[in-house]
Amino acid sequence: MTKSTPSPLSAQTAQADHHHAPSAYRELALKSRREIHTLKRLASRLIATCTGKNTAVDQKLTDFRDILYSAQDVSALLPRLAVIERMVSHQDMTQKKAQSHLEEQFHTSGETLQRVIGLPAQLKRDLRELLAKSANSDTERTQHLIRLLQLYERAVTLQATRPRAQHAQIELDKDQIRRVADELQNLITELDIDGQAGSQLLDIRRQLLTDVAPATVVSLTLSALRLILDATQAERQASQQFLAQVNDDLVAISQQNTRAFDHATQLRVAHQSVDQRLDHTITDIEKELGLKGTPESNPEAALTRALDALNAIAKENEALKTRERALEEQLSHNQTQLSTLAEHTMDQRRHVGDQERKRLLDPLTRVYNRAALNDRLEHEFRLWKKYQRPFCLAVIDIDHFKQVNQQFGYEVGDKALKIVARTIYQCLRDTDFIARFGGEEFVILLPDANDDTRTEILATISHTIRKLPLKFKNERVAITVSIGATLFSDQDTPTPVLERADQALYQAKNSGRNQIIWC
To answer: Is 279 in the same domain as 382?
Structure first.
C-alpha cells in the first residue's frame, strides 16, 4: 500500500483557510454583539412600554433591565424571563377581565342614559350611534368612554336647567296616579267580590278615597290586582270542581243504569224461562186429563209431578220478585241522585245568573254599570237608526264630590251616590235608562223624548237633587249636579255623542256648576 502525497493545490487552500479564520471569527463576534445590543434596546423599550400597570411586574422588569445591560451571557437571563412571562400572562388575564367589565359598564351606563325622560332627540341619536359602534382597540375604547362622558355631561346640564319642566312632570305624574286611584276604587265597586277578598278590597277602596301618597297608590293597586286575581282563580276553581263533581256523578249514574239494564234483561229472560216451564206443566196436566180412564193414566203420579213443578216455579218466581224489588230500589236511588244533581245544577245556574246580573249592576248604587250601558246604548242606537225618533243622552256629575268625601268621609260620599242614583231613577220614565258611568258620573238615555219631555226630565232631576235633605251629624250636606246633554243626529254613532255630552258637562262645570248645558 503506497502512501499518497498531497498535491500542491490542496496545500495552498489549507494555508488560505488558516489565514482567513481569525477574520471570520471577528466578523461573527461583531455581528453577535450588534444583535445582542439590538435585542437589549428592544427589550428596554418593551419594558418601558409595559411599565406602570402592575407594581410587582414593574419591579421585576426594572431588575431585569439593569441586569440585561450588565450581563455578558444572555442565556443566564432565561430563568428571570420565565418568571416575568408568568407574571405578565397573569396581568394580561386580569386586564382582559377588567376590560370586559368596563365594556359592560359602558353599555349599562348608555342604556341608563337612554331611559332618562326629556332628553333631546339629537342627544338620543348620538347615544344610539355610540352604543352601536364597536371598539376594536384600547384607543377606540378610550374615545368611546370620553364620548359617553360628554353625553352624560350634556344630559345633566339639560336636566339641571329645566327645573320647572321637571316640577310640571312631577305634578303630571301625581295627577295620573290620582286618576289611577279613582279608576281603581270605581273598579272595586263594580266587581262586587264576596268573602274575605271582597272585604280586603273594600278596605283598599276606603284608603284610595283619602289623599294617599303616590307610592301608597302603587302598593294598593298591586294588592288589589292580587286580590282580584285570587278571587277570580277561586271562582274558576269552584266552577271546575262543580263540573268535575257533575261529571263524576253522571258517570256513576250511567254505570248504575247500565247494571240495572243488564239486571232487567236477566229478569226478563228468567221470567220467560218460568213462563215456559209453567206452560209445560199445564200441558202435562192437560195431557194426563186426556188419558183419564185409559191404562196409561196415572193421575196420582201426574199430580205429584205437577205439584213439584209448580212449587219450583213458585220459589223461582219469589226469587225473581226479590230481584225486582232490588232493581226498583236501585232505580229509585238513581232517580234520587239525578234529582239531586238537577237541583245542584239549578243552583249553579242561579249562581251564574246572579253573577251575570251583578256584572250589569253597580253594586254600590244598584243602578246599571258601564257594561250594561254599552249594551243598552247599542240597542237604542239601532232603534234610532231605524225609526229616527228623538234620542237624548245626558251625563250627570255630582258637583264638588271629592270635597264631600274629604269633609264628611267616604261613608257619606257613598250614601250621597246611592241617594242621587235613586233620585235620578225615580225621575225617569219606564222606557228611560240610567247607569253609573264611573266615580260620581251617571249617564241617562231618554229614547223617544220630545223637546218638552227631555227638558222637563233633566230640570226635575237637577231640582230634586238640589233639594235632597242629606245630613251628617245634624249638618246639611248640599248636593248639586251639573248636566251635559245632547241629541243623536245625522250620521252620529254612540262615541261622538258621548264626547259631545262630556263637552257640554265640561262647559256646565266651567260655567259655575249646578246647571244644564246642551251641545
So the answer is: no
Q: How far is CA 64 from CA 47, 49, 381, 425, in A?
A: 9, 14, 97, 101
Q: Are 184 and 207 in contact (CB under 8 A)?
A: no
Its domain, for residue 258, covers 169-360
Q: Which of 313, 342, 360 is the last residue of a domain?
A: 360
Catalytic member of 190, 288, 380, 440: 440
Residue 258 resides in a domain:
yes
Residues 455 and 509 in one domain: yes
Structurally, how many domains does the chain consist of?
3
Using DSSP, how many helices (H) and how many strands (E) does the chain show? 14, 7
- The pTM assigned to this predicted structure is 0.48
CB atoms closer than 10 angstroms to residue 253: 16
Could you give the count of Cα atoms lying within 13 Å of 392 in the half-sphere of its Cβ? 26
d(CA 127, CA 148): 8
Same domain? For 229 and 333 the reply is yes
Q: Where are the alpha helices (DSSP H) in 392-493?
A: 401-408, 410-427, 451-466
Annotation says 440 is catalytic: yes
For 494, the grid coordinates are 254612540
Residue 107 lies in a domain: no
- How far apart, in whole angstroms, are the C-alpha atoms of residue 518 and residue 514? 14
Q: 176 and 217 share a domain?
A: yes
The DSSP code for 368 is B
Last residue of a domain, one of 56, 72, 95: 95
What whole-number distance in Å separates Cα of residue 193 and Cα of residue 202? 9
Per-residue pLDDT of the chain (519 residues; tens, 9 = 90+): 444 444 544 545 445 455 555 666 677 667 666 766 676 666 666 666 666 666 776 676 677 666 666 665 656 666 766 677 777 777 777 777 777 777 777 777 777 777 776 677 777 777 777 777 776 666 776 777 777 777 777 777 776 666 554 554 545 466 677 777 777 777 777 676 777 888 888 888 778 777 777 778 878 888 888 888 887 788 778 778 878 887 888 888 888 888 888 888 888 888 888 888 888 888 888 777 777 777 777 777 878 888 888 888 888 888 888 888 888 888 888 888 888 888 888 887 887 777 777 778 888 899 999 889 999 999 999 999 999 999 999 999 999 998 888 888 888 888 999 999 999 999 999 999 999 998 899 999 999 999 999 999 999 999 999 999 888 777 888 899 999 999 999 889 999 999 999 999 999 999 999 999 998
Residue 144, domain member (yes or no): no
Cβ atoms 282, 310 nearer than 8 A: no
